[in-house]
Design a protein that fits this description.
This protein is mainly α. It has four helices and no strands. It is elongated, with a radius of gyration of 22 Å. The relative contact order is 0.14.
Length: 101
């Protein structure tokens, strides 16, 4: 009569949870291999840099940098969200095709 260790109990609980879990609608490897996702990540990085620069402009009193930095960063954040939606839709379609094969 052997006793199960806590590690074995946790492992079994995780395996039961994975067995009952619903399949993800999008595979991450497909999502991050799409060109739209790469553009989205680049746009997000540029938006963050512009957002920080707009606050630097505010601190140093450069009104143009502050104003245009805010406008450009918010526009890029909106573009990033749009690209995220497009990428997820494409990845969901490709995931369905892969699982159907």
């Amino acid at each position: 009569m052997s006793k199960k260790s806590n590690v074995d109990k946790i492992r079994e609980a995780k395996e039961r949870e994975r067995a009952n879990a619903r399949e993800r609608s999008v595979d991450n490897d497909i999502l991050f291999s799409l060109p739209v996702t790469k553009v989205m990540l680049a746009a997000l990085a540029v938006a963050i840099v512009l957002y920080v620069l707009s606050y630097v402009g505010e601190v140093f009193g450069v009104g143009a940098l502050q104003h245009y930095g805010h406008v450009a960063s918010y526009a890029l954040f909106a573009l990033t969200f749009f690209l995220l939606v497009v990428a997820r839709v494409q990845a969901k379609k490709l995931t369905r095709e892969r699982r159907g094969q």
